[in-house]
Amino acid sequence: MALFNRRKKTDDASESQTPIEADAPDERAEQEQPPSEPVPEIGISVQAFRGVGAAAGPEVKLPDPDEPAPNTPSPIAAPRPTASGASVPTAPEKRTLPLAPALPPAQTESVPGMKDNVLLRTALAEIEEGATNEQLIGVLRQMLQGHLFLRVSGDARTQISEGKPLSVAVVRDGERAYMLAFSSAVAVRDSVQRETEPTATSAVAQPVTAVLQQVVSGGFSGLIIDNASGAHRAVFSIEILTKALEQADPGMTIKSLLSAPREQDTARKVGDALAKTKVWVAVNDGTEGAKVGIAEAHTADGRRFLQVFSHPLEVVALGRGDKPMPFTPEQLAKLLTSHASLAGVLVDSAGPSLIVERDALAAVIVLAVDLGD
């Protein structure tokens, strides 16, 4: 945790503090002043993420996680991402939103002792004034891993040790209250430096799921990421955060493994996670007589890998017009055993991504044996 002092205010947004566990917006309204500039809304629909690909293209509807998956289609080949002889697909040709390399970025500490959320910070750096839906989708998908920093009034360590709720920063826009979160401790410091009062402020890192659960359950209108970053900040409504959280793995197991430094057993750990966690696959719409199927990727050496995704946003981020479909571990096991030519799976091809070959998918394949297949 780091402590900062508020300095001269240079921004036109008013910030205040409220307990993280507060759940009564009316009580918060008595403590806070509205910002002098409106908090911008984003244009991502709650029912569907639009704006990916052609403007007149079909909506990409996020499936209901409780809805039974349709019969498993046959795998289909996505455009071959061949560049070299390496078994890692290249990125899509049109990069209209923040994507990421296959390997996770090197970890950095913009404030010593506090690791940045590098993927989120990088995605935010790529957006500009009037960010498109595609760019905001890119930021949101990278936010759904790792941790976020919260700005706390006073010493967060003391509040935690005393069992008190954290007094986190909130921006108000009339009757709407937005919690503040940050991609790095230095982004917290930038926010603090815009203040005039000399009150001490601290930064504390929290798992992203814990932060989102507090936003959803706390009566907030949404979340602002890196509010002092000008055009590089992002604002997400409570509706879109609720939908994204509902469809995420509560432990973010796969995303956490993909965003962490690679280890010798990373592929096996992801394979084990795939045996316990529902994922998503990309399904084409079957238009113009095309056979409906699940997207796969081919490597330069001709091997075939089924594409699976940790969240439906990962499918939408590719901009191919595919629809995300929930896929259980048992369905994945059945598909792998019935298509012996598949060399394994490619996880989250928008990056960070990982190829998991059959020998690391033993925990998945055994599920098909248990089912009698």
Automatic annotation (TrEMBL):
Residues 120-207, 258-362 form the SseB protein N-terminal domain. InterPro entries: SseB_N. Residues 68-78 have a biased composition (Pro residues). Pfam families: SseB. Residues 1-114 are annotated as: Disordered. This is SseB protein N-terminal domain-containing protein.
